[in-house]
Amino acid sequence: MATEKTIFKRIIDKEIPADVVYEDDLCMAFRDVSPQAPVHVLVIPKTTELRSLNDVNENNVELIGHVFCVIRKLAKELGVAEDGYRVVSNCGANACQTVPHLHFHLIGGRGFAWPPG
Ligand code: AMP
Question: Fewest beta carbons within 10 Å, which of 29, 35, 42, 85?
């Protein structure tokens, strides 16, 4: 039985609109629909094989490295690199992951507290 597409796969396939700020063959970045800061972008690999950080391993280090290079470039382009920003990947229920497609929140444009809630 085919598994249902996640909302992110539907964005990748252009079935639903998103405010896309970056795209290449391997990954995509778009603004979060419920932003938690002035800058809140989700950066995702396009593959559906990585559902969370639990699926990251030696076979996909190049892809994940690429995703982080994109995050670094976007932080600069979106104007948060200098003052600082946060990159978050919620993994699993305790971390409040809601979409089972690996994604990194790039959040900036305001100060953050530590520890997180
Ligand atoms: P997480 O809770 O870490 O799994 O993050 C999922 C994120 O996806 C949340 O911050 C949502 O606001 C965001 N989100 C859900 N649907 C969409 C959408 N259609 N476009 C952009 N962001 C979305």
Answer: 35
